[in-house]
Amino acid sequence: MLSNRQHWSAAVHALARECGAALHLVTAACVIGAFTGESERRLREAFAAALKDAAGGRPVIIFLDEVDALCPHRTAAQQHEARIVGQLLTLLDGVSALNPRQGQVPGAAAPQQAGQPQDQQRHQQQHAGHVLVVGATSRPNAVDPALRRPGRLEREILVQAPDAAARAAILRLLAARLPLDASVDLQRLAQESHGYTGADLQALCVEAAMHAIGAPAAGSIGNATAAAAAAAPEAEPLPALRSVTAADFAAALKQVGPSMARGAAVEFDPISWDDIGGLEGVKCKLKQAVEWPLRHADAFQRLRLKPPCGVLLHGPPGCSKTTLVRAAATASGATFISLSGAQLYSMYVGEGEALLRETFRRARLTSPSILFFDELDSLVGKRVEGEQTGESTARILSSFLTEMDGLELAQGVLVMGATNRPHALDAALVRPGRFDVVLYVPPPDKEGRLQALQIHTRSIPLAPEVDLRAIAAATERYTGAELAAVCREAAMTALREDAASAAEVRQAHFEAALAGIKPQLAPADLACHAACWV
């Protein structure tokens, strides 16, 4: 049985072609009928047709695609589904018993018929082709356990998403028919398309080719519209087809993402490290934890270094913790998956834990990936001895710790958390092997505040008299969010002063903004945050 639906259909068809076997496809859509007994009859007819081909000496493959729909777990199945499951199990037992010479591997000869001489039956069995039954599903736990016991679908193969080397090989096959430009580096494209399946890569190549057709080459008609071309086709010839360039694939990557990350990956505007003022030490450590394992994977392998499993950012509110995480995701190019407490907690028992497990599973499938938990203290609170911990919180925390331990066997998955209440986190979270790296994100210093003010005033027309360095010196204990609010309020002050002809922001406007916006952090709060390393 093949699990994790990626390339199994193509693999089974390739196996049938290589072995010269007859392929019989059995799906729930072609088996399940509306009347009682019709489904079981169709299933018997499908297996009988396969055994008839095998009776002529030809190997046969019976492919049960989406076997979880055909043979669901009988505890949750309806009566007609239970009958189909029973019929399928009976047919598999019959197929397995017909080839004893090959060690009970599912094979079959023609079934014995009533009144047929035993010598003729033995002769047919000796010259019958082998029958192999292959099941495929993306939900192996939804299949009835009786189907997975020895003698039926006894060997299970996990078909994972292709790695970088496999993606490069797939891209070479898919791009063989495309007129590729010399600028296209398929090896680099394979590195950038992490989490893509074979079907995703095919869609990527199609989208790149369509972009090349839709974007005219240099020197062609350029901005001529389709309407103009239709009105005067003889005057405006269509642009000549051109090679598919690296720019076409870059545009296709923005349109076609990994299918496994759909519904989980978060789209956000790219943020660079230069968009964050100050915090040079924090940014350096984040680069080492996030970028280095991807860019220097060979060096990590040589030194037997293990990348960190988790990074925890803690500090006062408004100090760019979430922005730092997004900058790390942008710089690394990893799939960014975010989860909040509002998504996890549900009125139904076990639903939050199931969502947590599914999110970790998707992160592993789309690796390299960053799994981000904002306001981590609201998801996994502290267990206090002698106090009653909420049952749902305890279950979520237990599931979270279990999944974090499982990441030791996974590669390319980094869990990042952010909190401004580190004392509310359970101590089990920050032991080695879970959140290995704990970083304190303080408010920016004087130089950091100057950089933040320069960033926030990039699009604001400033008067020559504005002295950002003096403003930075006057904003002690201001966070990055508060500095952004000061710049915004200064522009609003200029607008309120003269809405008709305001063209620039002066120093007086910043002084008025500083008089209205005060820092929320007291020196005692900073000392408490700096001393608490969880």
Write the layout of secondary structure elements.
Blueprint lengths: L1 E2 L4 H12 L2 E5 L1 H4 L6 H18 L4 E5 L2 H4 L8 H18 L21 H10 L3 E7 L19 E2 L5 H11 L11 H7 L5 H17 L11 H6 L14 H10 L24 H11 L1 H4 L1 H6 L7 E5 L6 H12 L2 E5 L1 H4 L6 H15 L3 E6 L1 H4 L11 H16 L6 E7 L17 E4 L5 H11 L11 H6 L6 H18 L9 H10 L6 H9 L3
Helix pairs in contact: 3-5, 7-8, 7-9, 9-11, 12-15, 17-19, 20-22, 22-23
Family: Belongs to the AAA ATPase family.
Protein name: Cell division control 48-like protein B
Keywords: ATP-binding, Nucleotide-binding
Find the count of extended strands (DSSP E, 2+ residues).
10
* CATH homologous superfamily placement of the largest domain: P-loop containing nucleotide triphosphate hydrolases
Using the CA coordinates, give the radius of gyration. 31 Å
What's the number of domains?
Answer: 4
DSSP strand (E) fraction? Answer: 5-15%
- CATH architectural group of the largest domain: 3-Layer(aba) Sandwich
In one word, what is the shape?
elongated
Estimate the helix proportion, in percent: 40-55%
Distance, first to last CA: 46 Å
CATH class of the largest domain: Alpha Beta
Region (Disordered): 102-127
Biased composition (Low complexity): 102-119
Organism: Micractinium conductrix
GO molecular function, one term: ATP binding
